[in-house]
């Protein structure tokens, strides 16, 4: 039986062969596993990739213990992994507390956050992993932080809207990241066709924090003047809650994933436990996510989409959208 590997998979495989560092190899292998068709012909290849991935993660952990005790990687959980960056006293940890309900250490002094720590943010019926990072300055940027940013799905940057120095402090953050070949971009950014070196471009949202404080309105305009053309900016307040719900939505959207519900014939869909799939996934992708044997046995599917589509028979390559309900019929 043919494996039927897609062009996207083969491109990821090419990047894996060319990868020079362990995090780069891990990122490529994870992408290859996501893109690989799940059926009997690829079972052996899947097992080989998972074995390689486990070994690389183990090697990364062994080699990644720096003097500050940061590990190179934090295992991804939920619908996606978003690293949260910012200069000192940007309001980042307070924002994470407001978004997740967790209790990271918070203080009005630099470097309250000393190590990277994961928290889970609920968005409707899924959770997104937020990684709280120590602040980035001209003097401080751990190599382990750099590697975590490279493999993360997206970036959330915090900047104090009430601090007139925020644009300059942010430029230090962006400059340090550019030194490490990391570029923070908006969703609409189109990369050039060819580049001399590989650039790690991460989809990014800028949260202008402390929007409830005096001077925040002028500070927000300054941030927009310097950065609105590069990345989207949203004013938020961890104190009043303003902007937090919209920020949750934007964080989910920047992950480029969709929620799909599997429905058993004759029963209702369970909307509290969606399958999270890459944007652009088709019926075959949800079939393989439900069970690997469904790929070979799938005859057709029926689809429900809001008030637009009800029980429509669709083929294997039908493209899915967020919150579609799919009923799989086997041969």
Mind explaining what this structure looks like?
This protein is α/β, with parallel strands linked by helices and 331 residues long. It folds into three domains: 7-63, no CATH class; 81-254, P-loop containing nucleotide triphosphate hydrolases (Rossmann fold, 3-Layer(aba) Sandwich); 257-330, Beta-grasp domain (Ubiquitin-like (UB roll), Roll), CATH 3.10.20. It is built from ten helices and twelve strands. The chain has helices at 7-18, 22-35, 43-63, 92-100, 143-151, 166-179, 216-227, 244-254, 283-290, 294-297, and strands spanning 81-85, 117-123, 126-132, 154-160, 182-185, 200-209, 233-235, 257-263, 275-278, 298-305, 309-314, 324-330. The strands form two sheets. Strands 1, 2, 3, 4, 5, 6 and 7 form a seven-stranded mixed sheet that branches. Strands 9-8-12-10-11 form a five-stranded mixed sheet, sandwiched between helices. The protein is globular and about 65 Å long. Mean pLDDT is 86; it is low at 65-71.
Low-pLDDT residue spans? 65-71
CATH C-level class of the largest domain is Alpha Beta
Number of domains: 3
Name the average pLDDT: 86
Q: Gap between N and C termini, in Å?
A: 18 Å
CATH homology superfamily of the largest domain: P-loop containing nucleotide triphosphate hydrolases
Shape: globular
Radius of gyration, in Å, reads 21 Å
What is the tally of helical segments?
Answer: 10
The CATH topology of the largest domain comes to: Rossmann fold
Reported CATH architecture of the largest domain: 3-Layer(aba) Sandwich
Could you describe the largest sheet, including whether it forms a barrel? 7 strands, mixed
In which range does the helix fraction lie? 25-40%
Structural class: alpha/beta
Order of helices and strands: HHHEHEEHEHEEHEHEEHHEEE
User: Could you give the count of β-strands?
Assistant: 12
Question: What fraction strand?
Answer: 15-25%
């Amino acid at each position: 039986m043919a494996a039927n590997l897609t062009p996207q998979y083969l491109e990821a495989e090419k990047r894996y062969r060319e990868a020079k560092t362990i995090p780069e190899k891990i990122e490529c292998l994870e992408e290859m596993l996501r893109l690989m068709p799940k059926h009997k012909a690829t079972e052996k290849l899947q097992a080989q990739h998972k074995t390689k991935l486990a070994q690389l993660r183990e090697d990364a952990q062994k080699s990644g213990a720096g003097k500050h005790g940061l590990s190179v990687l934090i295992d991804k959980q939920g619908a996606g992994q978003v690293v949260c960056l910012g200069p000192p006293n940007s309001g980042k940890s307070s924002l994470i507390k407001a978004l997740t309900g967790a209790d990271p250490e918070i203080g009005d002094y630099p470097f309250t956050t000393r190590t990277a720590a994961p928290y889970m943010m609920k968005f409707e019926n899924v959770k997104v992993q937020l990684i709280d990072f120590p602040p980035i300055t001209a003097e401080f940027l751990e190599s382990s932080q750099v590697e975590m940013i490279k493999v993360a799905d997206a970036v959330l940057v915090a900047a104090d809207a009430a601090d007139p120095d925020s644009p300059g402090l942010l430029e230090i953050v962006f400059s340090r990241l550019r030194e490490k070949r990391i570029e923070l971009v908006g969703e609409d950014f189109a990369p050039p066709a060819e580049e001399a070196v590989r650039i790690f471009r991460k989809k990014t949202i800028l949260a202008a924090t402390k929007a409830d404080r005096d001077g925040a309105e002028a500070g927000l305009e300054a941030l927009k003047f310097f950065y609105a053309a590069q990345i989207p900016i949203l004013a938020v307040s961890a104190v009043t809650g303003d902007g937090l719900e919209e920020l949750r939505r934007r964080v989910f959207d920047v992950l480029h994933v969709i929620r799909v519900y599997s429905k058993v014939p004759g029963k209702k869909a369970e909307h509290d436990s969606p399958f999270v799939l890459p944007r652009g996934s088709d019926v075959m992708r949800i079939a393989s996510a439900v069970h690997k044997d469904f790929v070979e046995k799938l005859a057709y599917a029926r689809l429900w989409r809001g008030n637009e589509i009800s029980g429509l028979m669709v083929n294997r390559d039908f493209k899915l959208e967020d919150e579609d309900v799919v009923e799989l019929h086997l041969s």
